[in-house]
Specification:
disordered N terminus; single chain; two-stranded antiparallel ribbon; 38% helix; disordered C terminus; alpha/beta
Length: 435
Amino acid sequence: MAAMSTSPMNLNMIDSNFEVDKLTYEIFSILENNFLFGYGDAENRTNSVPNAVNFPAGDAKPVKHAAGKVRILCIDGAGATDGILAAKSLAHLEACLRRKSGDVNARVADFFDAAAGSGVGGVLAALLFTRGKDGQPLFTAEEALKFLTDNRRKITRRPGILRRVLRPEAKAEKLFRKTFGECTLKDTVKPVLIPCYDLVTRAPFVFSRADALEMDGYDFKMHDVCAATSADPSFAGPTEMRSVDGRTKIMAVDGGVAMNNPTAAAITHVLNNKHEFPFCNGVSDLLVLSLGNGESDFNAVKSPSGFVRIAGEGASDTVDQAVSMAFGDCRMSNYVRIQSNGVINKGVQMKSDLLAVSEAMLSQKNVESVLFKGKKVANNTNLEKLELFGGEIIKEEQRRKTSILPTVVLKNNNASPSPSRTSSATTLSTLSSNC
């Protein structure tokens, strides 16, 4: 493991391209090796378990019992709306789930089996999936939306002399500590993946509930996780942090530097996590909702922070194209991407403006990635896509009530470690800082 550097870190110590080329290569290698090309070959599925099993019923013909689909939520980094578009999408989705299920107390976390979020998207995932004292998630989607709008300037920091003097990064850390208390990755209600970029190992590091349950050295306080994934490298600098047991430490910056769109990492994690998702063998066994946060006006970019956004949003579109390719024929039914259709005006800064702009984005026609043909405008709006997806994940929830096979077998805090690592997450940073 790499030793921890004690020298001060700043923007000049980070490569200008943030190793984007290397990261893109890693993402496509993972996609290609696991499910883009030849994943259906029996020779490449030696560790997989069939998604459907035949059980004989007396003298009758064998009956095929499907294990169902794993539901994954993925949330991009800040984007042009500082996370408000994703939060607004989830508020609409949660209202839809309550209406269609008849459960007025339904939460987003009730209808997803795993979540991944980067940057402010990671903060949003933490708010929705961290368990509170009552056993329920800390925030509803509407409460999480209000949290982001009320605290946007503390979380998504912008450069400026005055803001440097006021040290807004300290305000964000204080906010996260007050919100999450002593909760750790183990205290999430479902598997959660939240990436950052480790400046010591110069590699992505993914905070993972599965890893935390396997090894104490990978369990971190949730307030540290949120501070790490939202640390702006061009302004506040890196966040130095340690695991709960003190054995692992990293120098973290914004998750958007590593993977602004965590969808590929989330899919790879689920497909390789056979302990918790035993019957999930390919993309046809998934239902994935990927939430963007608006496209920035790159013509107005004049700061290092702006160039970070260019790299992050460009990588998000690349991941969207790759994932769409991976889903192939089931792309229309199993993979939904919500993103703006056009750029946001750089003058939109007020909370009320961002809420209104995000609502307008949801009313736009949905944009779909088409295999080898770029993108096309769909017939449905983003809101209609969310409604349709909400119906699909409710059907999956209802199907599980009569299913023999478990789609998900979540480990809990009292479970003993498995002989082999459960997660594929932190293997993206195989040289994590350990001392």
